Amino acid sequence: MSSPRPPAAARAAAALAVAALLAACAEAPPLGADRGGITLIMDDSESAMSDAVDTANRHCVGVSRLALLQDVTETPDGKVAVFDCVDV
Questions:
Q1: What is each CA distance from 58 to 7, 33, 42, 83, in whole angstroms?
Q2: What is the pLDDT of residues 13-70, one digit of tens each?
Q3: Is 44 helix (H, G, I), strand (E, B) or coil?
Q4: 41: closest CA among 33, 50, 52?
Q5: What is the pTM of this model?
C-alpha cells in the first residue's frame, strides 16, 4: 500500500521553497559588509550588475540606508563592486 501524495498546492509550495534556497545559495557571499557599505564579487552573467545592486540594496535597507555604487574594479577573480550605504 502506498502512502497518499500531498496535495498539488503543497508540492508546488515545497518546490518553490527549494528553488528559493538554491537561488540564495547561488548568490556570492560579500567580500565585506558593515553599516557603511558592502563589497561584492560579480560573476560574468548578464545580470551580474543588477544582482549586485539588488544585494547591496537589501543589505543597506537592513541598516536603514540606501546603496550607492562607488567603484567597480576588474580583478583576477572577477569584477568587484563597492557600494556605500548612505543616509537619505
A1: 34, 12, 16, 12
A2: 444 443 343 344 346 678 888 889 999 999 888 999 999 999 999 999 999 999 999 9
A3: coil
A4: 52
A5: 0.66
- β 78-86/66-75 pair status: antiparallel
- Cell numbers for 77: 577573480
CA–CA distance from 70 to each of 26, 29, 45, 83 (Å)? 24, 19, 21, 5
Contact 55, 30 (CB under 8 A): yes
Nine-digit cell string for 31: 567580500
Alpha-carbon 47 to chain mean position: 11
